[in-house]
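Bug report (template v2)

What were you trying to do?
Predict the complex of my protein with flavin-adenine dinucleotide.

What happened?
Run completed; filing so the output is reviewed.

Input:
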Amino acid sequence: MRSLFLNSREPWHTSTYLPTYLPTYLRQSTTAYLTIHNMCAWIVDAFGNDDVRARFLPGLVSCEHFASYCLTEPGAGSDAASLRTTAILDEASGEYVLNGEKAFISGGGRSDVYVVMCR
Ligand SMILES: Cc1cc2nc3c(=O)[nH]c(=O)nc-3n(C[C@H](O)[C@H](O)[C@H](O)COP(=O)(O)OP(=O)(O)OC[C@H]3O[C@@H](n4cnc5c(N)ncnc54)[C@H](O)[C@@H]3O)c2cc1C
């Protein structure tokens, strides 16, 4: 399979296709997962700084790594503004600590990269 990333600026931009020999049910779930993966790669490309883009995009574009989009929570579905997951900067380590619950995440148990909506 060739690289899937459709939305990115150069030099990551490539074209996409899905194998047509897959059964329909597999094509639908595969299409959904790859569409989400592609959306996550676009988010990284559009909103990440150069370091983040260089760290994540090569793996996402080549599909060496897969990404999930994590918005839905037990108390926040259609009403995304009510999400409660937080990302708090830990001054000692310089890293963000995520706290919260997510639900219905496509590829949640399989992905390598998680794009998490939080406060
Ligand atoms: C197969 C599958 C894959 C999914 N993958 C992901 C994923 O990868 N990442 C992710 O973040 N989420 C994912 N989701 C979650 C999905 O995005 C949510 O289920 C969706 O946002 C709806 O949220 P909810 O289930 O909490 O329903 P609710 O928000 O509780 O809505 C229930 C019903 O109430 C209606 N409703 C809600 N608010 C209003 C309103 N203000 N006015 C009128 N009617 C309203 C809705 O239309 C719906 O019919 C997935 C869900 C499914 C089924």
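What did the reviewer find?
The helical segments are 24-47, 50-61. Residues 36, 68-72, 77-79, 104-106 surround flavin-adenine dinucleotide (CB under 6 Å).
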